[in-house]
Design goal:
The protein has one helix and six strands, in the order H-E-E-E-E-E-E. It has 92 residues and is of the alpha+beta class. The protein has one domain. A hairpin with a 2-residue loop joins strand 4 and strand 5. The longest helix is centred in the N-terminal third of the chain and has 18 residues. The radius of gyration is 13 Å and the shape is globular.
Amino acid sequence: MPPVMLALLLTLSLIAPGAAAAWDGVDSSTGGSVEIGKGNLVRSGRTIEVYDADAGDYRDVEVQSIRRFGGSVEVEVYDSDSGEYRTFEMDE
């Protein structure tokens, strides 16, 4: 398979879970549950809505990076409400 095609497939596989249905995961620093809601396009530079179970509220965060590790996807975001960078480990 050509490298360009492989890169496209990898990118689509990272984006698809956030676009199709709710995507469950945890905040790696707190262990609290997070959910990226249906309809969010998870892509670097985009603002997405996340349900933060610890806060009991929805938050808008900006996606900084997306990386695949084993059976999960690591999504680093900037939370402008708290002024912090957060890392979510999302189920694949």
